[in-house]
Every structure is written in structure tokens, then in C-alpha cells.
């Protein structure tokens, strides 16, 4: 699965907001966007929900696309929507 993600930096905690009506997942991370720290934080945080996460596009942008591979896509979605 390849969800579109919108990243928000300087958050109080790392979290995913999948309840919005927008097609993008909102990912909030505590990291700053300096030296790709936010990208690394997003990859690390989303990797805790899935087996493998790869940044497909959006290295220098708040809008990103990630490739999430897991043996069961339904299990990843259920963990995101908790």
C-alpha cells in the first residue's frame, strides 16, 4: 500500500490522524525538518506499525508518499485507525 501522507513537525507527540476526510494521512512528529530529521522520524514511527516503510516521494516536501509493505495490509490499517 502507498498512502499519501502530510507531515506536521514540532508536534507534542508522534501520532497518526487517520480520521480526517482528506485523502492524506496526517502524521505529526516531534522532530524538526532540519537535516531530514522529520523524514527519519516519520519513517521510524510508521515502521513501528508495519514491516517495512520506504519513502517514495516528498523528501523535501510536507506531502509525502510512502510504500508500506506488510504481510497483511488490513493489520496495518487497523493499527493506524486505533
Structure description:
- The protein is an alpha+beta fold.
- It has a single domain (about 5-80), classed as 2-Layer Sandwich (Conserved Hypothetical Protein Mth637, Chain: A), CATH 3.30.1200.
- Helix content is about 25%, strand content about 30%.
- A five-stranded mixed sheet has the order 2-3-1-5-4, with helices on one face.
- It is globular.
- It starts with a strand and ends with a helix.
Sum this structure up briefly.
By secondary structure, this protein is an alpha+beta fold.
Percent helix, as a range, is 10-25%
Counted beta strands: 5
Order of helices and strands: EEEHEEH
**N-to-C CA distance:** 18 Å
- Derived from helix and strand composition plus strand pairing, the structural class reads alpha+beta
Strand fraction equals 25-35%
* Count of individual domains: 1
CATH level-1 class: Alpha Beta
List the helices and strands and how they pair.
Blueprint: E1 4-8, E2 15-17, E3 25-28, H1 37-47, E4 52-57, E5 63-69, H2 73-80
What are the defining features of this structure?
82 residues; alpha+beta; Conserved Hypothetical Protein Mth637, Chain: A; 23% helix; 30% strand; globular
Amino acid at each position: 500500500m502507498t498512502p499519501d501522507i502530510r507531515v506536521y513537525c514540532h508536534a507534542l507527540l508522534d501520532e497518526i490522524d487517520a480520521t480526517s476526510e482528506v485523502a492524506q494521512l496526517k502524521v505529526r512528529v516531534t522532530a524538526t525538518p532540519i537535516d531530514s530529521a522529520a523524514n527519519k522520524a516519520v519513517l521510524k514511527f510508521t515502521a513501528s506499525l508495519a514491516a517495512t516503510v520506504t519513502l517514495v516521494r516528498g523528501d523535501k516536501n510536507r506531502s509525502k508518499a510512502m510504500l508500506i509493505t506488510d504481510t497483511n495490509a488490513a493489520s496495518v490499517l487497523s493499527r493506524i485507525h486505533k
